[in-house]
Write a structure and sequence with these properties.
The complex is a heterodimer of chains A (217) and B (340). Chain A is of the alpha/beta class and 217 residues long. Chain A folds into 2 domains: 3-93 and 178-192, Nucleotidyltransferase, domain 5 (2-Layer Sandwich); 95-173, ATPase, nucleotide binding domain (Nucleotidyltransferase, domain 5, 2-Layer Sandwich), CATH 3.30.420.40. Chain A is 30% helix and 25% strand. Chain A has 6 helices and 10 strands. Chain A has helices spanning 38-49, 68-85, 94-105, 155-159, 162-167, 180-192, and strands at 3-7, 13-18, 23-28, 58-62, 89-92, 110-116, 122-128, 131-138, 151-153, 171-173. A 5-stranded mixed β-sheet of chain A has the order 3-2-1-4-5, with helices on both faces. Chain A has a 5-stranded mixed β-sheet with strand order 8-7-6-9-10. In chain A, helix 3 packs across helix 6. Chain A is globular. The mean pLDDT of chain A is 96. By secondary structure, chain B is an alpha/beta fold. A 5-stranded mixed β-sheet of chain B has the order 3-2-1-4-5, with helices on both faces. Chain B has a 5-stranded mixed β-sheet with strand order 8-7-6-9-10, sandwiched between helices. In chain B, a hairpin with a 4-residue loop joins strand 1 (7-12) and strand 2. The longest helix of chain B is centred in the C-terminal third of the chain and has 26 residues, at 234-259. Chain B is globular and about 60 Å long. The model of chain B has no long low-confidence stretch (mean pLDDT 96). The chains are: A alpha/beta (217), B alpha/beta (340). Chains A and B meet through helix 1 and helix 2 of A and helix 2 and helix 3 of B. Bound molecules: adenosine-5'-diphosphate (ADP).
């Protein structure tokens, strides 16, 4: 099965291409414009694998949350690739991909994920035994009270000191990002459990939906 | 070996319209579809950029699908993809550009960045009875008011621009003052029809001095002050405003034509839908032995057909960059384009 995974939702950009017997990854940090990076990275991994986009069996993507523009970049690119050769897709939460990656990397089964959502808020979720919970947009003082057995990951922890106090999580790593390579592994678990990829158009999930105020005229 | 037909897919998403067009080198425009977000933004009194982007991403693929089926072709028949790269709202441009680029990358076909105003400028060439180069172009939309010397595709010199509000913007703002909702340009034109004799003499900004620049914000203020004094005379104010704005455009068009050796005027952009504008410019052109050309009504405002068409020209010229970076140019001058 040939699977391509793409993430551009936050300040990193990554792609991962799974072939029958190997995986080819690219991961770039400190990205200002994933727009000029994402397709060249795809091109690189396809060249290395010596396959073409039409040879894909599926496209995986982080559907958000993240920066609005980054989230849309990711879904838009996936829409195009999927549409071009009628390839099914599967979108997973950015928070879950971070949680999954951290749980593997740090060998922890309890992970609290907080992404800096600006405007005094975080995109929040926690991950226990391979399951994501309570994905939401929260003020730091509204997050779940979890306790010290959790490890905190994501840019939210660096941005809001008070998160630690309100969640009861003492150890955190803010330099922890979504990675397409984790997205592939996580999606494979979903697919094993019987989750199907879809031909519906890939769509973003922003979590923050209150983005405009009606004028009083 | 038969001559190969090229089929260009055009994607427009620079502001509050998602537009798709398909242009065939042998048959011309073979399909176009549009979704206007006007209703989405109406409650906010103007375009909300984030809402615009959120809507575009839901519309582009379905509109491409219906355009392909209207044209009775498959995506694999498409030979090139054109997308509006600017000017416009960054987030909105990005949606159409990312989809365009990922399609062209996946299919291994060329893509080309199209300047939105070049799209407008070339739109009248989609008609059967169409202008020939060179000509003077008047571009009048919600975001731009411009007189351009057009020697050929991509060979543009801006002769004059608005120093403040675009003329469409002035229509919209004046309409708002008169309580007409958003975007009020067409509604203001409707209201003006009720007025038979012109009651107020509004100024004709910047016509008493040389040059081809425009200024429309003073007209809007004049309308506001008049409305405060005589709120019962809405249709008179609408008419007086419309006449003043359009006479001003006409005076500058005439000046531009007379200052050139051309006898062709091309008028495009949202405000070119205005019938009084068409009558006024036709009449002026007749007097000086010139002729004015306009797009059909539905291609006055933003659309994908004009992007497919402009993209087709550029793809034919082969001067296209083939890297896969998704490029947007929210600020992009017409004069930075290269001639083909
Ligand atoms: N009949 C009309 N009379 C005057 N203005 C009009 C008319 N029809 C459309 N407009 C104006 O055209 C503008 C929209 O044109 P468009 O080319 O889509 O511009 P933009 O992309 O810059 O918003 C709006 O300002 C609208 O009010």
């Amino acid at each position: 099965m040939n699977l391509l995974a793409i993430d551009t939702c936050t300040e990193v950009c990554s792609v991962s291409l799974l072939l029958d017997n190997k995986k080819i990854d690219r991961f770039v940090e400190g990205v200002e414009k994933s727009s000029s990076l994402i397709l060249p990275l795809c091109d690189e991994v396809f060249d290395e694998a010596n396959i073409l986009p039409k040879d894909l069996d599926g496209v995986l993507y982080t559907r958000g949350p993240g920066s609005f523009t980054g989230v849309r970049m990711c879904t838009a690119v996936v829409q195009g690739i999927s549409f071009a050769h009628n390839i099914p897709t599967l979108g997973l939460s950015t928070l879950e991909v971070i949680g999954y990656g951290a749980s593997k990397k740090y060998n922890k089964d309890k992970v609290a994920i907080a992404l800096d959502a600006r405007m005094g808020e975080v995109y929040w979720a926690y991950y226990i035994n391979n399951k994501i919970h309570n994905e939401s947009l929260k003020k730091p003082n509204e997050v779940d009270s979890l306790g010290a057995e959790y490890i905190g990951v994501g840019t939210g922890w660096g941005a809001y000191e008070e998160l630690s106090f309100h969640s009861g999580v003492n150890d955190f790593i803010s330099e922890c990002h979504p990675q397409a390579t984790n997205l592939i592994d996580l999606a494979l678990e979903y697919i094993d459990r019987g989750v199907k990829m879809t031909f519906d158009i890939a769509m973003p999930v922003y979590l923050r939906n209150n983005v405009a105020h009606k004028s009083l005229k | 070996m038969g001559h190969k037909v090229s089929l260009t897919l055009g994607i427009e998403s620079s502001c509050d319209e998602t537009g798709i067009g398909i242009y065939s080198s042998s048959e011309g425009l073979i399909a176009h579809n549009l979704f206007s977000q006007v209703k989405i933004h109406a409650d906010y009194g103007g375009v909300v950029p984030e809402l615009a982007s959120r809507d575009h991403i839901q519309r582009v693929i379905p509109l491409i699908k219906s355009s392909l089926s209207d044209a009775k072709i498959n995506l694999s028949d498409i030979t090139g993809v054109a997308h509006t790269a600017g000017p416009g709202l960054a987030g909105a441009l990005l949606v159409g550009s990312a989809i365009a680029k990922s399609i062209s990358w996946s299919l291994g076909i060329p893509s080309v960045e199209v300047h939105h105003m070049e799209g407008h400028l070339l739109a009248p060439l989609l008609e059967e009875d169409c202008p020939e180069f060179p000509f003077i172009a008047l571009l009048v939309s919600g975001g731009h008011t411009m007189l351009v010397d057009v020697k050929g595709v991509g060979d543009y010199t801006i002769l004059g621009e608005s120093l403040d509000d675009a003329v469409g913007e002035a229509f919209d703002k004046t309409a708002k003052i008169l309580g007409l909702g958003y975007p009020g340009g067409p509604a203001l034109a409707e209201l003006a029809k009720q007025c038979k004799t012109i009651k107020y003499k509004f100024p004709r900004p910047m016509t008493d001095r040389p040059g081809l620049d425009f200024s429309f914000s003073g007209l809007k203020t004049y309308a506001r002050n008049t409305f405060i004094k005589e709120p019962q005379n809405r249709s008179d104010i609408a008419k007086s405003f419309e006449v003043a704005a359009i006479q001003t455009l006409m005076i500058k068009c005439r000046r531009a034509l007379e200052g050139s050796e051309y006898s062709t005027l091309v008028v495009s952009g949202g405000v070119s839908a205005n019938l009084y504008l068409r009558d006024t410019l036709d009449e002026m052109c007749k007097k000086i032995n010139a002729r004015a050309f306009y797009p059909r009504q539905e291609f006055c405002t933003d659309n994908g057909a004009m992007i497919a068409f402009a993209g087709h020209y550029r793809l034919m010229s082969k001067k296209i960059n083939s890297d896969h970076k998704i490029v947007i140019k929210p600020r992009w001058s017409l004069e930075d384009l290269s001639a083909i």
